Structure prediction request, 134 residues.
Amino acid sequence: MDEYPISSVPAAFDRGHLYSPTLSLTVHALDDRCIYDYRPGDLYEPMPASPTKPKDWAWWRQNIAAVPVPDFLGLRVGDQISIQHVTSTGEGEVIATERAGAVVRYPLPKSDFSTRKHAEMYVRRRNDAGHWYP
Prediction:
């Protein structure tokens, strides 16, 4: 399952988990002392780390992380995927792909306390069992 997908964002593996590495991680790929293996993205280089100051973070989020992309690690809008919640797995549909992750809509169980039928979450990683998670 450690096969790199063709993707507009970079792809990397860590102990079987697929994710898109940040710029700070990929710097090690050029360091002879530490080899970090990743597949470059077709459209984007690794993202810089998010700033800590609120205004800087808001700019980074809007102008770097939330930029729409054709796919995220091979996920495309309309794909049905398996998602990992805290203690369970379920199905979801990819409704948007951004540089920082894919937005997935998944059904909620019936509830006497809410009329909501769906929720949304970002997925950024896939585990070695094939489930996507935040």
Q: What stands out?
A: Residues 49 and 117 are 34 Å apart (CA to CA). The chain is about 10% helix and 30% strand. The longest helix spans residues 54-65.
